[in-house]
Design goal:
The protein is of the alpha/beta class and 305 residues long. It is 46% helix and 20% strand.
């Protein structure tokens, strides 16, 4: 049975994620798997202490997953539970890659053991970053348990005409059909930064406007292929700002972004647009975000799109 995989550590964000994805799995008729990863102590020279600490951690993990099973039972959802040892992000990624039935990885925006460097939280951030590399399925991050659910809502797709954004749109259409949601596609024309060159600015703005309109035309073509109406929207400004602003204005239930696109940073594979939107999500300022990987034959077969 196809399933959603979520990481559980007992923190409020992870339990919020559990409630959110229990409902989503039920709406999509998917299974759900909860994985608890135990960090091994680094005091290997004290063997006795290490064993005692691991035994305690394992007992706590079993108790936590027992609680998870009870919550799932109340939702009417059967859930499988897994305990692993190692680095949380690495073990979740490994599990998702090895289990071909995993079609979505879900996570809360932060949890235990998170670094202070990022508002989003290191595990969630690394999961999303892996989508840009080799994750075989999308990753969805939520900011809180009271997030508006996708069913009967709106999915906002960041569409720049790139191959990743096309994959994100196709994935979103399939999701929308299952959940009776509407699709909004936004194409943002960036503001030129050399406005003192008036003639060059006007020419560039005309070119950017034309490109944005063509992007929406491409989005509508994909919608027609999949028998789905798409509302195309062109905005002017910085892509992350305009995506977040429109998501709030239109009360979007989900933002969908391709794993990479035209606005990549040189520092990492995770696109700057994706990173900026996720930072806002980490602050609780935006609806859930799903990051969709580039679709190769293996991923296409797994997701069925």
């Amino acid at each position: 049975m196809k399933k959603i995989l979520i990481g559980i550590d007992g923190s409020k964000p992870s339990m919020d994620a559990l409630n959110y994805f229990l409902r989503l799995s039920k709406e999509l008729s998917l299974g759900l798997a909860a994985i608890r990863v135990i960090n091994e102590p680094r005091i290997s020279e004290w063997i006795g202490v290490k064993k005692a600490m691991m035994k305690q951690a394992e007992d706590e993990a079993k108790a936590l997953l027992g609680q998870v099973v009870s919550i799932a039972k109340n939702f009417g959802v059967e859930i499988e539970t897994v305990i692993k040892k190692g680095d949380p992000s690495e073990e979740i990624i490994k599990y998702a890659k090895e289990d071909n039935d995993v079609v979505l990885v879900g996570a809360g925006h932060a949890g235990r053991g998170m670094t202070a460097r990022r508002v989003l939280g290191s595990v969630a951030y690394l999961l999303v970053d892996e989508v840009s590399k080799s994750m075989p399925c999308p990753v969805m991050i939520i900011s809180c348990g009271e997030c508006k659910h996708i069913k009967d809502g709106k999915i906002l797709v960041a569409f720049d005409g790139s191959v990743p954004s096309r994959h994100a749109l196709r994935y979103s259409i399939d999701l929308a059909k299952s959940l009776n949601a509407k699709i909004l596609a936004i194409s943002v024309k960036s503001v030129a930064r050399f406005t003192h060159w008036i003639s060059a600015y006007k020419k560039l703005e005309e070119e950017m406007t034309e490109e944005a309109k063509k992007n929406i035309e491409k989005a509508n073509e994909i919608g027609k292929e999949k028998n789905t109406d798409i509302e195309g929207i062109v905005k002017t400004g910085e892509p992350p700002d305009e995506i977040i602003k429109l998501a709030r204005e239109r009360d979007a239930s989900l933002i969908a972004i391709g794993a990479s696109g035209k606005h990549l940073t040189a520092k990492r594979l995770l696109g700057s647009v994706t990173e900026s939107v996720l930072k806002e999500l980490g602050k609780g300022n935006v609806c859930p975000v799903v990051v969709v990987p580039g679709i190769d034959e293996v991923i296409h077969k797994r997701l069925g799109i």
